[in-house]
Amino acid sequence: MGSKYLLAFAFLVLAFFPDSSRSAIPRWLGEQKMRGSVIRMKTGGSSAAIDPTRVTQLSWRPRAFLYKGFLSNEECDHLMDMARDKLEKSMVADNESGKSIASEVRTSSGMFLGKAQDEVVAEIEARIAAWTFLPAENGESIQILHYEHGQKYEPHYDYFHDKANQELGGHRVATVLMYLSNVEKGGETVFPNAEGKLTQPKSDDLSDCAKNGYSVKPMKGDALLFFSLHLNATTDTSSLHGSCPVIEGEKWSATKWIHVRSFDKLTRNSVDGECKDDNVNCPMWARAGECQKNPVYMVGSEDSYGSCRKSCKVCSS
User: Fold this and answer.
1) How far does the signal peptide extend, from start to end residue (predicted)?
2) What tens digit of pLDDT does each residue of 95-143 get?
3) Mean pLDDT (whole number) for 262-272
4) What DSSP letter does each residue of the chain carry, written as one string?
5) CATH superfamily of 54-259
6) Which of 71, 92, 195, 283 is the most buried (most CB within 10 A)?
7) Measured at the alpha carbon of residue 220, what is the angle toward residues 216 and 223, in degrees to the nearest 5?
8) How many other β-carbons are positioned within 10 Å of the β-carbon of residue 299?
């Protein structure tokens, strides 16, 4: 493996944890074994292989990475086949109530798979956890989306503006967008506020919509990972993104939204007011001064509950 890939992978590890020591790596990650360019990582009871040489850093503002060939053709076809006869009009989250509502902002159709619905889905979810260094339990179920001619999703944020949605898992910290089909023209993912939007070369095959920001062209099997929060857990406005209208052909994609905490259960602090930590590493992070350096994640804010309130001594048990 080239040194540039090792450096990129090492930086990715450091980006996720306040402390880069061995003890800061969460226990769910388990052991990792490297053979050639493939790293096999244990996530829970599963083992997932990822290849860091296929990952390209696209942007730092927002943090965005592209994994070429993340899914096989067979996996893409399997996900589309599971969704074809179950598609319904896509909804959006209302900023006031947090409820899902219909909107012309989003004109695609879609459906949600069950978590670990079958062996293929379970393998993909394990691979996502291994690549992102984020626990599988923090992720929502995979959503399959279908865009026909003219359909799109206007630029939006994946983090929440309402407290109702934040109570279950907190903000969405990261999104993994997997492309299940090629698109003849249009359908690009565009970041209008991205730092590199002016310096990215714009090829003739891009749609006019895609030229309004940093854009990613859908390619079957590729996966786009981007973060909606900064490393200090504050929201990143440069993560604004949208799906450009499909001009020719159709677009299939699969989205995995990942939260800062478990999405499978309500946050303890928000439910019963108990003075507890949500991470076993909280005492170590508190001793390292993270309560002051990273107060939004550690202590909390008006919009979200802190994950290390007990260790930061902002509550009493």
Assistant:
1) 1-23
2) 555 455 556 667 788 899 988 999 999 999 999 999 999 999 999 999 9
3) 57
4) --HHHHHHHHHHHHHH-S--SGGGS-GGG--EEEETTEEEEEETTEEEEE-GGGEEEEEETTEEEEETT-S-HHHHHHHHHHHGGG-EE--EE-TTT--EE--TTB--EEEEPPTT-SHHHHHHHHHHHHHHT--GGGBPPPEEEEE-BT--EEEE-SS-SSHHHHTTT-SEEEEEEEE-S--SEE--EEETT-TTTTTS---TTS-TGGGGSEEE---TT-EEEEESB-TTS-B-GGG-EEEPPEEES-EEEEEEEEESS-SSS--HHHHH-----SSTTHHHHHHTTHHHHSHHHHTB-SSSB-S-TTTTTSS--
5) q2cbj1_9rhob like domain (2.60.120.620)
6) 71
7) 55
8) 21
Residue 71 pLDDT greater than 90, yes or no:
yes
Residue type, 232: N
Q: Residue 20: count other Cβ atoms within 10 Å of its Cβ.
A: 12
Domain boundaries, the chain: 54-259, 271-317
In whole angstroms, give the CA distance from residue 175 to residue 157.
11
- To the question of pTM greater than 0.90 for the whole model, the response is no
Pairing relationship of beta strands 100-101 and 241-243 according to DSSP bridges: unpaired
What residue type is assigned to position 272 of the chain?
D
Q: Which tokens hold the place of 96?
A: 């006031």
43 pLDDT more than 60? no
Convert the pLDDT of each residue in 17-27 to its tens digit: 443 333 333 44
